[in-house]
Amino acid sequence: MSTYESPAVTPRAAEIGDRVERFVRDVVAPFERDPRRDAHGPTDALVHELRGLARQAGVLTPHILPGGGHLTQRETAYVLRKSGLSPLGPLACNTMAPDEGNMFLLGKVATEAQKARFLAPLIAGDARSAFLMTEPAVDGGAGSDPSMMRTTATPAGNGWTINGRKAFITGYAGAKVGIVMARTSAEGEPVRATMFLIDLPHPAITIERVLDTIDSSMPGGHSVLSIDDLHVDGDAVLGAPDEGLRYAQIRLSPARLSHCMRWLGAATRANEIATAYALKRQAFGKPLIDHEGVGFMLADNLIDLKQAELMTDWAAGILDTGDLGTAQSSIAKVAVSEALMRVADRCVQVMGGTGVTGDTIVEQVFREIRAFRIYDGPSEVHRWSLAKKIKRDAR
């Protein structure tokens, strides 16, 4: 079956994306059985080796151009989808969360000195980063609602002192760059927050534990942290004081789409594997594909994959206009995450017992996409936000 590519795929994006796809399929995919991983994700040793191979192939950090320029969001959608064809692809190509979103934010907000110190090592693939925003639910802290921020930053001399707890901090263990978000408004005042850049690890930040989670694609896992009297100088402020909530939207709107892009690639590959299985596996005298129940599931997968591709392209186009696209990114995040969940679930079902084993990446893709329906805002939060917009627009 011929495939339709969006007219938004520019020659530049097509050339980069096609190189990324060849690299991920030919070089990265064989590492999917590499034992260098722990309960939380691939080890840094494996990541280091894969990034070295990506550097040699000229596909390391492919969405950021020489000189610091950035592909458009539509072009990024194409390239990141290709990197996602293996769960290891985004790590190898340096397009993985949270680094990809952190690089985007630093490119938009950081000073030149901050870019040299914190952004350059990320782009070079020499460092990983962490975004310290989410807080433990038991503390009543910020999750999908960053205005509930309980971590505080108070003025101290020529800088700030930060105290609080953070949770679900992806990739903290082993990260070298940290973005800490803390409340800088007084108790009882409207919430204002500020972002701070820090070198990691830092003695004032303690890992309480690394959570056991359903997903296992991100080095360092997801940590619960204690921040005790972390002192930073004034030049650690990212952007301007009290602008953290606005900067969070600058980061999160594209980041939601980046997740959609990467997991669209993974779901595409899972569907390829399930289709190959259905063509080869015999049952009741004929290949599985010839049984209507199986054939229809694979047909539905094609429909969901194409809708996810078009939805992502549409939302990325909104971001390219300069609009934050908050509503559009919410629509895309819900639609794509739920469509890809259906795809992954059908792939498991088509493959039967084999689909729930580690013999292929299908089982992992199912787990990862299930987690994707929660992080960067669960579907229910995005639907609630959209419902509020509907009410506002009706007035």
From TrEMBL:
It comes from the Bacteria. One of its GO terms (biological process) is fatty acid beta-oxidation using acyl-CoA dehydrogenase. Its EC number is 1.3.8.7. Gene3D superfamilies: Acyl-CoA dehydrogenase/oxidase, N-terminal domain, Butyryl-CoA Dehydrogenase, subunit A, domain 2, Butyryl-CoA Dehydrogenase, subunit A, domain 3. Signal peptide: none annotated. It holds the Pfam family Acyl-CoA_dh_M. Residues 242-390 form the Acyl-CoA dehydrogenase/oxidase C-terminal domain. GO terms for molecular function: flavin adenine dinucleotide binding; medium-chain fatty acyl-CoA dehydrogenase activity. It is an enzyme of class 1 (oxidoreductase). Its cofactor is FAD. Keywords: FAD, Flavoprotein, Oxidoreductase. GO terms for cellular component: cytoplasm. Residues 130-213 form the Acyl-CoA oxidase/dehydrogenase middle domain. Residues 13-126 form the Acyl-CoA dehydrogenase/oxidase N-terminal domain. Homodimer. Belongs to the acyl-CoA dehydrogenase family. PANTHER family: ACYL-COA DEHYDROGENASE FAMILY MEMBER 11, MEDIUM-CHAIN SPECIFIC ACYL-COA DEHYDROGENASE, MITOCHONDRIAL-RELATED. This is Acyl-CoA dehydrogenase. It comes from Sphingomonas yantingensis. The lineage of its organism: Bacteria, Pseudomonadati, Pseudomonadota, Alphaproteobacteria, Sphingomonadales.
